Amino acid sequence: MGQENISRVTEFVLHGFSGPPELQLFFFVFFTLLYLSIVLGNVLIVFTVISESALHTPMYFLLSNLSFLDVCLSTFATPKMIFDFFTDHKTISFEGCMAQIFVMHVFAGGEMMLLVAMAYDRYVAICRPLHYATIMSIHKCTGLVVGSWLIGILHSISQLVFIVNLPYCGPNTVENFFCDLPLVIKLACTDTYILEILMVSDSDIMAMSSFVLLLISYMVILVTVRRQSSAGVAKALATLTAHVTVVTLFFGPCIFIYALPFSNLLLNKVLSIFYTVFTPLLNPLIYTLRNKEVILAMQKLRKQCRIS
């Protein structure tokens, strides 16, 4: 085909969760309630940590940043997915599609690194308690958070710079409710096999290396607490169980999607829901809302609001 006959794609069609009107209405109510719960729950945690001086510790500083990232990760695509349940033509502009890919990898990459930082914080607290205050200073915590964002941004740029200028001339259907990198790059009107391998490997290596690093840190913590009292072991196990649950729910779908990006498109959609909707919803429940210090701080804030 001559170059003059090739028209550039200006929008992509998103094939999210479709079905009869009754099912679409159910999806709308279900995901709207989930999204509102994510935003309200995580914003409440951030506000509580900021307002309560007793929670101004490295652990809760990192947790509040995780809650902020969870809001961002659930917001880049979920509101549009909810809106699309009432539209027949589910489209997104080319620029909007590239923006979704960029911010998704920023937030996902940042959250991966932040989870590693949180594991490091627990390692220092449990394995080197006498030096905890010195090691986990406010400057160190700020550096860990800033570093998480920078790594997420650099990772996202490394993905986007290779695909934004590819020729897209059709088809333009993305088999997901947002612009997922492996699916979008497949739509380019050129041979992208090598590029696909590089892009998918980049994301998968980042996820796998972070996941393995987290597992190693948890194993070191478990070996260390075996020498402590039974009460210390029980507390450490409770903490690690919460961490492992969140890490598995977040990293598992990511690793699977990028390891086998085209194995089952319906399964990919379901797994995408896990790390964009369900994990941001479960993080507050697992990490903080079952924590006595956070609950007491929220009760204190509620009493102060009633008095005022």
Brief account:
The chain has 308 residues and is mainly α. 74% of the residues lie in helices and 3% in strands. The relative contact order is 0.14.
Question: Could you say which overall geometry the principal axes of the C-alpha atoms support?
Answer: globular
By CATH, the topology is Rhopdopsin 7-helix transmembrane proteins
- Total of helices: 11
Biggest sheet strand line-up = 2-1-3
Helix content: over 70%
Structural class: mainly alpha
* Integer-rounded radius of gyration: 21 Å
CATH architecture: Up-down Bundle
Number of domains: 1
Give the strand content.
under 5%
CATH superfamily: Rhodopsin 7-helix transmembrane proteins
First-to-last CA distance: 71 Å
Biggest sheet layout: 3 strands, mixed
Low-confidence stretches: 1-5
By CATH reckoning, the class would read Mainly Alpha
Per DSSP E runs of 2 or more residues, the count of β-strands stands at 3
Query: Please, what is the average pLDDT?
Result: 84
Series of secondary-structure elements, N-terminal to C-terminal: EHHHEHHHEHHHHH
